[in-house]
Design brief:
The chain is of the alpha+beta class. It is built from four helices and eleven strands, in the order βαβββββαααβββββ. The strands form two sheets. The protein has a six-stranded mixed β-sheet, with helices on one face. A five-stranded antiparallel β-sheet has the order 6-10-9-8-7. Helix 3 crosses helix 4.
C-alpha cells in the first residue's frame, strides 16, 4: 500500500460502544473523519501478527490504497481511538483499576519515580501498552521490558527510546500514545 494520507495522529476519546464491533465501527468513522473521506472509502480489519488470524489481533486501515495507522483501546465506559500516518499505539486506563491491580510490570526505577502516585503508575502502564501496540507484538512481550520515564515522556523497548504523549482527560483517566514522535492532537 502507498504512503499515508495523514500527517499527524488524531486521538478520539468516546463512550465505549455496546460491544467490540461497535468500537471497531467507531474506529472506521475516526479514520474517515481524520482523512476527510466518507466511511465507505475506508477499508479496515484486524490481523494477528503471530498467527495470521483475522478474528483478532492488531487493527489495520487504508484509505484509497494508502495505509493509515490505527489503534484502539478500551477501559470500562470508554474507548480511545488513534489514527495516524504510521504505526501508532494507544491505551486508555482508569487510574482506579491500575491502583487496584497487583501489577508487577513496573521497574524499580518506575516505582521510585512514581513515589506511590497511582496516577503516575497508571500512566506508566498505559505507556507500556501503547508502545507494545505500536511495536505490533502487544502483550506477547512482558510489559516489564518497557521502561517508562514520565518526566521525559519516553519509553524504551529493546534498547530503543521512543516518545510517548500523555493526557489526563479526567481525574481517573489517562491516555498514552506512542507514535514515533509524530504530532498528536485531539479530535474536535
Amino acid at each position: 500500500m502507498g504512503e499515508s494520507c495523514l500527517r499527524s495522529v488524531v486521538v478520539t476519546l468516546r463512550p465505549a460502544g455496546a460491544d467490540r464491533a461497535a468500537d471497531r465501527e467507531a474506529l472506521v468513522a475516526a479514520v474517515a473523519a481524520a482523512a476527510a473521506v466518507g466511511a465507505g472509502a475506508v477499508r479496515a480489519g484486524r490481523v494477528c501478527g503471530h498467527c495470521g488470524g483475522v478474528d483478532h489481533g492488531r487493527p489495520w486501515a487504508s484509505v484509497g490504497g494508502r495505509t493509515v495507522g490505527v489503534s484502539l483501546a478500551r477501559t470500562p465506559g470508554m474507548a480511545a481511538l488513534a489514527v495516524g500516518p504510521g504505526p501508532v499505539g494507544i491505551d486508555v486506563e482508569r487510574v482506579s483499576r491500575v491502583a487496584a491491580a497487583p501489577l508487577d510490570a513496573f521497574s524499580v526505577r518506575e516505582r521510585s519515580r512514581a513515589a506511590g502516585d497511582t496516577r503516575a503508575l497508571a500512566a506508566c502502564w498505559a505507556a507500556k501498552e501503547a508502545v507494545l501496540k505500536r511495536d505490533g507484538r502487544g502483550l506477547r512481550v512482558d510489559p516489564g521490558a518497557v521502561e517508562v520515564d514520565l518526566e521525559r515522556g519516553t519509553a524504551v523497548l529493546d534498547g530503543v527510546e521512543q516518545p510517548v504523549w500523555f493526557a489526563w482527560p479526567g481525574a481517573d483517566v489517562v491516555v498514552a500514545v506512542a507514535a514515533g514522535g509524530v504530532q498528536v492532537t485531539w479530535a474536535g
